[in-house]
Amino acid sequence: xxxxxxxxxxxxxxxxxxxxxxxxxxxxxxxxxxxxxxxxxxxxxxxxxxxxxxxxxxxxxxxxxxxxxxxxxxxxxxxxxxxxxxxxxxxxxxxxxxxxxxxxxxxxxxxxxxxxxxxxxxxxxxxxxxxxxxxxxxxxxxxxxxxxxxxxxxxxxxxxxxxxxxxxxxxxxxxxxxxxxxxxxxxxxxxxxxxxxxxxxxxxxxxxxxxxxxxxxxxxxxxxxxxxxxxxxxxxxxxxxxxxxxxxxxxxxxxxxxxxxxxxxxxxxxxxxxxxxxxxxxxxxxxxxxxxxxxxxxxxxxxxxxxxxxxxxxxxxxxxxxxxxxxxxxxxxxxxxxxxxxxxxxxxxxxx
Length: 352
Description:
- This protein is of the alpha+beta class.
- It has 9 helices and 16 strands.
């Protein structure tokens, strides 16, 4: 047993003091860096806990969190919060937003837009983009978003598997990877809004345990973000400018077709088809894709034209993005958006 050992490694922030009592799993360590909140921490190698540091106590109370935003204790709580925890690998592999976005698209449409960036963008001008500002937190009685603020399985007409959920801090407010790719292909510099807290979920069609869900099993995905008053005030104002350059984007890319690689082409478009139908602000964003064709011969690749919409709703300081499965109608999406707005009310600042 070694007591009070100092660690000067700058990569660790310097000045670690350790106590490796075998009765304490992984050892306790104290870090004096104010940026990390100070206090005692424990290194825990249990994979179910993600291998992260677990803090022994919170340096500040509720008043400190309200004034300064997410504390280290908030981050620990987010990492270890349990809504429904299957194996950690399953949560990370299936619940992350990228996975859901891949389920929502077709193989042809996705391969045409490889390399895109997804976010709600604030277009910027000039050769050098400004640095991304760290969000300033408004004092508020609520911070982390509770699971109850999300859509619930009972809100859908179909029976679902248990929700796959994940919470995070400082996430960008994402819409559609392909919309970001459209803007990037036209050489547009972009910036995106950043949230304080977020909670996301994926609802898949009910299947037996161990069943590998095909893309058609995606019923709905939802991201829910808590934002500053500044972001809440300007968020929807940027949507028109965001989608305007992508009203008719001719996208191309390599596709495996009948045993050979060809260059495929399709026209993709994004349109705001409805506004302010629920909550404080709302929008319905439709993405349409033409029939993909061989760019050289003009031959159809057998995929019919299709379109899907997503709903964006704001209630006070909460913004949600609802991504439906391919089979969901706009009418059903609006119904879910209205339910989502009602559920958001109880977690919003101020509540409604």
